[in-house]
Design a protein that fits this description.
This protein has about 90 residues and is mainly α. The chain has helices spanning about 1-20, 25-50, 60-80.
């Protein structure tokens, strides 16, 4: 579980970085942001499973979930208006 959570959370950042470098190409930019969105949601699933298995306390789970909710919100804004971010 820890390996999967680490992998997916790191992938969020890596995909955002790759998207940023590809922002000249709107379709590629959106595609990489979409990948990041998927990885962020996967991380949220692992956080919830860690809570249900007793590895995280409710307060920790709520804090992490809130952080990922904000990350996902920003990704959705960027995906819906890629022209605002292009070079």
């Amino acid at each position: 579980m820890v390996d999967q959570m680490r992998r997916s959370s790191r992938s969020v950042c890596a995909n955002i970085a790759e998207a940023w470098r590809k922002r000249r190409y709107p379709a590629h930019f959106v595609s990489k942001l979409s990948d990041s969105e998927g990885e962020a949601e996967e991380t949220r699933v692992w956080i919830e499973l860690a809570f249900r298995c007793g590895y995280l306390k409710r307060e920790q789970t709520d804090d992490l979930d809130d952080r990922y909710d904000k990350i996902l919100g920003q990704l959705v804004l960027m995906i819906n208006a890629p022209e605002k971010w292009k070079l």
